[in-house]
Amino acid sequence: MNSELRTPNSGDSAPASSTKTETTTGTRIRNFLIALVAIALGVALFLGLKTETGSVSLESQAAASTPLEVALSNDKPTLMEFYANWCTTCQAMAKDLGELKQQYATKVNFVMLNVDNSKWLPEILNYRVDGIPHFVFLGTDGQAIAQTIGEQPRSVLEADLEALVANLPLPYTQGSGQISAFEASVLSTTTGQDDPRSHGAQVQQ
């Protein structure tokens, strides 16, 4: 009688152990998948916030920038920046530029022209903007002194601003950095060297 009782008990223990192992394995797989999804969502959220923060920073700086007509008539030197909210290079420079704008706020006009705004098409063509950010340094008379294109280190921009304020030759306008390509939406009948869109992304002085 005792052996009959032992036989069912020993037979029942094998399926229970197997079920427990399957449950543990399934739980581990599920937890691993949840962790992967959480990591992926975290990365996506971080990148999204980073881009959004850069865009907001550009918009706030543009809203606080000096109007072009004021900059051309107030007898102060000017740094004109052609930019776009979608420009990743512009976003990357936003923090440093924002700090420099505060530092030189009383000495330099900071003008920001959004290349997506057709209002600035004459300026885009005049300064031959085909890559952004595109910076134009203007003297106190509103005339262009030098231009530079692409991402610039803060130290380079600061040195150029110091020279601009002191009315000295700008030391770093021969370099160009990472740019975001840009094409003005305009139909032009000019060809050859007279076409302002025919040149490459070159720094001019």
What's a quick, concise take on this entry?
49% of the residues lie in helices and 13% in strands.
Overall description:
This protein is an alpha+beta fold. It has a domain at 65-194: Glutaredoxin, CATH 3.40.30. It contains five helices and six strands; from the N terminus they run ααβαβαβββαβ. The chain has helices at 2-64, 68-71, 88-103, 121-126, 154-165; strands at residues 78-83, 109-114, 131-132, 134-138, 144-149, 180-181. The strands form two sheets. The protein has a four-stranded mixed β-sheet, with no helix packed on it. α1 (2-64) crosses α3 (88-103). The longest helix is centred in the N-terminal third of the chain and has 63 residues, at 2-64. The radius of gyration is 30 Å and the shape is elongated. The N and C termini lie far apart (106 Å). Residues 48-53 and 186-205 have low confidence and may be disordered.
